[in-house]
């Protein structure tokens, strides 16, 4: 499929091969310069560290057109930094952060025809990832690594993005205390596949994980951070825990709440109790793909918590937060802190 054949307004969230990917190899203790490639398949040894011991991490961000025709992406320096942290935790050699952002620019420019038109709701999803490449059988980190960036055009993550979802409390845990929950490791997703399929089989959209030690505190869903609104829209509350992945969307929304909307932001432990006692009026899931998707209801083994905002639409405060962030992204609202990164 070519870009000119795509119906941008009805694009789904599936992989589509584009023209170029970026690839760089780490060998003999250093990264090479990297290059664009048209080869979208990878050949490696059957005993590659990533295949045996899952030594891999990734990032996700998006490029899109602004109203005035520029191609931009959102806070790529924050993704570069986060991938650096992921690499260190997995004993992988970080790709230098400035080169990381340059590589993103390069691969987006090379695939400019695949950047969806302004206003279509679609974006060019950018997926940087790194993995242990050479054969390893005794358990140890690889010596050689591949860093790649693939790009693929996607529509909104949730069809009808603003429709509230229903989440459930799974009987499974996401990330152990002092484990890998705070980094973007592929292994965090491998373990979430069974719980999410179970949730779907029971009719729920997402799992909201609790802290494994006490199972009383809210952590996050499989792929999105959680925010709550209370005090008639005056306060935003977001859970604090080392095993929550530091979402760039969530951090941006907290900044907007505090510095642009005059709200109070509380980053603290949030107990499931508080939520089930209806302390909060609105709940949202945040991540790059959906920005915010509203939660209308929690079903904890039959114990139902309904949010004031209900199952029909997003509540007023999340709506304001979301439109401010998307307004900054599209260039319609002044950028508070060099978040929008011009590529072309
Ligand atoms: C990627 C991710 C998020 C969202 O992070 P963003 O930077 O906002 O896209 C949230 N939770 C988990 C577990 C993730 O992997």
Automatic annotation (TrEMBL):
Q: Name one GO biological process term.
A: L-valine biosynthetic process
Q: Which residues form the signal peptide?
A: none
Q: According to its UniProt record, which cofactors does this protein need?
A: pyridoxal 5'-phosphate
Sorted keywords for this record are: Aminotransferase, Pyridoxal phosphate, Transferase
Q: In which pathway does it act?
A: Amino-acid biosynthesis; L-valine biosynthesis; L-valine from pyruvate: step 4/4; Amino-acid biosynthesis; L-isoleucine biosynthesis; L-isoleucine from 2-oxobutanoate: step 4/4; Amino-acid biosynthesis; L-leucine biosynthesis; L-leucine from 3-methyl-2-oxobutanoate: step 4/4
The GO terms describing molecular function are: branched-chain-amino-acid transaminase activity
Annotated family: Belongs to the class-IV pyridoxal-phosphate-dependent aminotransferase family.
Could you identify this protein by its name? branched-chain-amino-acid transaminase
Organism in which the protein naturally occurs: Candidatus Weimeria bifida
